[in-house]
Amino acid sequence: MPTNLPPEYYEAERHYKEAVTPQEKAETLENLISTIPKHKGTDKLRADLRRKLSKFKSQAQAAKKKTGKHETHFHIEKEGDARVIVVGCANVGKSSLVAKVTNAEPEISSSPYSSWAPTPGMMIHDGVHIQLIDTPAIDREYIEPEFVDLVKNSDLILLMLDLQAYPLQQVEKTIDMLENHRIYAAHKDIPDTEKRVWKISTIIAVNKDDGENLDEEFDVLNELLREEGWILLPVSVETGRNLNDMMNFVIKELKIIRVYSKRPHEEADYSQPFILKSGATLDDFALAVHKDFHEKMKSARIWGKGVRDGQPVGRDHVLSDGDVVELHI
């Protein structure tokens, strides 16, 4: 049943997603719930949000009881379909990127080390919600353990460089910092001396490639780093150049797919895709739609890559990005 949510809901939802502490989450969630019209189509949504509200209120009360203790700025609850953390040296454009492609408002300054706390924002691209986190510069004398934990709990690292300011030195400093804390790019070989390590998909966004006159400099950098298995993306936050391509590649590297639902005799609903891991099956999709579909599904038809339009498929059929599925119970 459609929920028919008003515009006020989406504005309140934005504030909720930007909240960081349990107290802020609870306050913004109460406001969010108040914007939802009460009818059968919103019963499940309101019930889910009330459960979250109860959790955040309990966390906020527990935090108040801890006298002398303050919640770290690096504690950020995961939101969306995946988390991408932006790391790099000072003044490479991390804050500007997050401000450009999300609803966040990190402090942007030409002065080095202007960002002393991480700032999350939600990047919405082709139906995928990605939590993008701006972080303090890594070329500091002290790296907080909480910062390292935040990186370890990310699905992808977006390592950012400034093409116009000694990018090779920047990438060396950033990689050294990560590997000194046992965080390695997924494609890198791990030294035998390392016992416990974190391997995370990592791509490099080379900022300030503002025009064709700078493409040659990027090509030289790309040639040098490609031999080591790095993937480099030329972008310009200031002009918006290649940012759409970057977001497409981030989604591809996260190995997630978008699958759309379709009711019998109706058009597919492309407004809200179901986000699944690459390799997901029809059985996984049915469970994502609702447990009743998963338990009672008798048949299914599919439109997409490598299949006939409306082809019947079984529960073990592996889905592709962009598939449209019609479930029958």
Summarize this structure briefly.
With 329 residues, this protein is of the alpha/beta class.
Would you kindly provide a written description of the structure presented here, covering whatever features stand out?
With 329 residues, the protein is α/β, with parallel strands linked by helices. The chain has three domains: 59 residues, no CATH class; 172 residues, Rossmann fold (3-Layer(aba) Sandwich), CATH 3.40.50; 73 residues, Beta-grasp domain (Ubiquitin-like (UB roll), Roll). Helices cover 35% and strands 22% of the residues. The protein has ten helices and twelve strands. Strands 1, 2, 3, 4, 5, 6 and 7 form a seven-stranded mixed beta sheet that branches. Strand 2 and strand 3 form a beta hairpin. Helix 1 packs antiparallel against helix 2 and helix 2 packs antiparallel against helix 3. The protein is globular and about 60 Å long. It starts with 6 loop residues before the first helix and ends with a strand. The mean pLDDT is 87.
